[in-house]
Amino acid sequence: MITEAQMCAVLNEALATGSDFAELYFEEKDELNIKCANGSIRNITTTRISGVGVYLLLGSKSVYGHTNDLSFHNLIAVAQQLAQLLKNQGNNQAKVHDFTQKRYQNPNRVEIFPASVNNLAKIKVAKEAYRAIQDSGIKVKQANVDYFDTDQRVTICNSNGLLTEDRRVTSRLRLQATVQDGQQSLFDWKDYVLPHGFETFRLTANYTDFAKQFVKNILKRLRAKSAPTGVFPVVFESGSCGTFWHEACGHQLESTAIAGQRSDFVDLIGKKVASDKVTIIDDGTIPGLYGSAAIDDEGHPTQKNILIENGILTGYLCDRLGGRRLGLPSTGSGRRQSYTYAPVARMTNTYLAAGTDDDDEMIKSVDEGLYVKGMGGGTGGREFSVEVIDGYWIKNGQIDYQIKGLTLNARGIDIMKKVDRVGKRLETEYGGFCGAASGLCPVTSFQPRMRVTEMAIGGGSHG
């Protein structure tokens, strides 16, 4: 790592042709991957990522470059090259302010850092998860378990005088299995992931029970029936069904979509965009959640952002550049996968706030409709889609039978007005990765149980 004086010199060089803001993003990340295929360890890979991103702004224009050569001489050269791409014809050259080091506490505490644990202990975890799959009583044709741990350290400094850092540790098991039932078989995968160190695996039952349930759910899907087609009420279970909100409105509320006029929510702050029952929050400060951190990837402390309150649009998610384009402050949402990406506004932990409605009544009052207990992935935008991987048909107010996987499609701004029930019990989820312009970022999306008065439902299509 270069000295603070050298950081200052690089930033000044970046500003030499008239840019009004410059930032250095240093990253060092260690990652371990252990592959367990059908009970045998096939590969152990360790990876170290080290580099720096250089980011320049001039009004609403930007340039970005990156390098894995951290020498002072090279960083000066990179800054000079980028500065030539963003010239200001005036004579107003910004200056680097004196650094003020700011420290923010990461909400995700780590007890056992990955590097302090030998690989034999980690191999044991992977094999125990594999054995749990085999001991589930389900006929599994093939099963793989990948163990991952990551330890990322970031240091961010900018021409406004900010100097800050964060350390982010995660532990993850990726389960993959093909389950057979008669002549049918179905493959699926699922992650068991927490933003902690090796203490994640302290209680063996937590991840072995998770593994057993994973393959049991695949078998249930193999034996499911096709859903009727038509327009019906849909009840979405608490927890991971919050993916609905991530896709229905989350991406559209990021400043990149708003500034690019790719959202139905442009110029609607203060306007009603959803049912009175709907309050949507994005909060990167919640302890124990995969999307939480001390700071975003621009050095801004993470924060709780209320995006929709009682159906009224109250704000957008903004990174520094997006905020400039919209005339809004940063919301601690500038995120990136690594130093090779420029930051853009991204979600962290996005959820529907708890309501006051009775969970049981939501199903009992439905003559015929769909109950969604589990979701897979989805796609966002004006028209969004979510994959139903664990769904059931409701008949006469009771769960009747499991339905084959299907995809629900709707226009976010329309369907949000059709939410007529929101339950009292808010339940979180493990989380996963969201992919967008700045790469893969860890997120969660969750909710209490809720009901939509009507959605178009098609036949089963996902096994």
TrEMBL record:
Pfam families: PmbA_TldD_1st, PmbA_TldD_2nd, PmbA_TldD_3rd. Residues 114-198 form the Metalloprotease TldD/E central domain. Residues 229-459 form the Metalloprotease TldD/E C-terminal domain. GO terms for cellular component: cytosol. GO terms for biological process: proteolysis. Residues 22-83 form the Metalloprotease TldD/E N-terminal domain. It comes from the Bacteria. InterPro entries: Metalloprtase-TldD/E_C (IPR045569), Metalloprtase-TldD/E_cen_dom (IPR045570), Metalloprtase-TldD/E_N (IPR002510), Peptidase_U62_metallo (IPR051463), TldD/PmbA_N (IPR035068), TldD/PmbA_sf (IPR036059). One of its GO terms (molecular function) is metallopeptidase activity. Keywords: Hydrolase, Metalloprotease, Protease. Belongs to the peptidase U62 family. This is TldD protein.
